[in-house]
Design goal:
The chain folds into two domains: 264 residues, Malonyl-Coenzyme A Acyl Carrier Protein, domain 2 (3-Layer(aba) Sandwich); 73 residues, Alpha-Beta Plaits, CATH 3.30.70. The chain is built from 15 helices and eleven strands. The strands form three sheets. The chain has a five-stranded mixed β-sheet. The chain has a four-stranded parallel β-sheet with strand order 2-1-10-11. A two-stranded antiparallel ribbon has the order 7-8. The longest helix is centred in the N-terminal third of the chain and has 20 residues. The two termini are 18 Å apart.
């Protein structure tokens, strides 16, 4: 009997030096049953990139060394994250898992749209690149700050500190992403610098400014959103084949999706308003009650935020970090990260 799965797509900043070469390596180690399909899909993504006059995903992934100036350039990083995630999605063993819903964090929404077949491979590749270019040119900055304690339980004092900074800089400092146990804040350079200075330091790391990030998911992205809507018409959107949960926790349920509304959300609200990743996860598990949550690559950084979102609602007895880690020690963990070799093997195991 198949197990049901919620699929989660990662956002910006997930393809880094440790991930260099991982796209090629994952294809090379895949079963003969799907290897040619994966190669063909990557070739199609590469062809779209080449037609845009940009480095292909293969060229970037197979570079001799990781260069921040190259690999973290917005239109390259986005393509690597999307391609790695989409190819991981195609690698899930469908004889073992039935994907019942898909969500993502921040730009992971674009990967989710591709996985749900709301865009063709051509459209997804070009749109991901286009949106990276449009938003990277935006103003402002972005930083991250924890709102949980060491056991990943909500910390009222830290949340109050965040609220205090938001109140101190109205309209110039905003919630960008609710990311599990972290508040990602964004706004003008001045407001972000002041908030980073004034927030109590945590673990000698936070608040942490995210290098190269603009004020994503805030009103400072309004021009990018307008340009995106003018560039990508409703005709580019197809009916999703799998339910999607967006950054509001709203469910796009097949086959009743309004293409115009999906276009306006994806290129409007999603770009200029808070992305509530925590709520997306919480709604998804409550509504679809998946047997497992599968986290796509690249990387394995989504696990903590997903766990923290679950802890906040006490899902299935997960009340703190300890209880989550204990559950993950089972032979088939509840949360399966395809960025971890041992868990990837469980997701793709039966493909022989």
């Amino acid at each position: 009997m198949k197990k049901t799965a919620l699929v989660v797509c990662p956002g910006r900043g997930t393809y880094n030096k440790p991930e260099l070469g991982s796209i090629y390596a994952n294809i090379a180690s895949s079963s003969p049953k799907i290897k040619e399909d994966l190669k063909s899909t990557l070739a199609r993504i590469d062809a779209e990139r080449a037609a845009l006059g940009l480095a292909t995903v293969t060229e970037l992934d197979q570079a001799k060394g990781f260069k921040s100036s190259l690999h973290q350039k917005a239109e390259h990083a986005a393509a690597l994250i999307y391609a790695a995630g989409y190819l991981d999605f195609l690698s899930i063993d469908r004889e073992q898992f039935e994907v019942v819903a898909i969500t993502g964090n921040s730009m992971g929404w674009y990967t989710a749209m591709a996985c749900a077949e709301a865009w063709s491979i051509s459209t997804a590749t070009r749109l991901v690149t286009s949106m990276a270019q449009l938003t990277a040119g935006g103003a402002g900055a972005q930083f991250i700050y924890p709102t949980v304690d060491d056991q990943w339980r909500p910390d009222a004092q830290r949340e109050a500190a965040v609220e205090g900074q938001l109140a101190a800089y109205p309209n110039t400092l905003m919630r960008s992403i609710n990311y599990g146990g972290y508040a990602v804040l964004a706004g003008t350079e001045e407001a972000c610098s002041a908030a980073v200075r004034d927030l109590p330091k945590v673990d000698e790391r936070f608040p942490m400014v995210l290098p190269g990030h603009a004020a994503f998911h805030t009103s400072l992205m309004a021009e990018a959103a307008q340009a995106a809507q003018e560039t990508w018409p409703i005709a580019a959107f197809q009916m999703p084949q799998t339910p999607l949960i967006d950054g509001r926790g709203y469910q796009w349920l097949t086959p009743s999706v309004d293409a115009r509304a999906l276009q306006q959300y994806t290129l409007g609200h999603q770009v200029t308003e808070t992305y509530d990743f925590s709520k997306a996860i919480q709604v998804a598990v409550k509504e679809f009650a998946p047997d497992h949550i599968i986290l796509l690559g690249p990387g394995s950084g989504l696990g903590g935020a997903v766990a923290q979102a679950l802890i906040a609602i006490g899902w299935q007895g997960i009340t703190d970090k300890t209880s989550f880690v204990q559950g993950q020690s089972e032979a088939m963990p509840y949360v399966l990260s395809m960025g971890l070799p041992e868990q990837r093997a469980l997701v793709t195991a039966a493909q022989t």
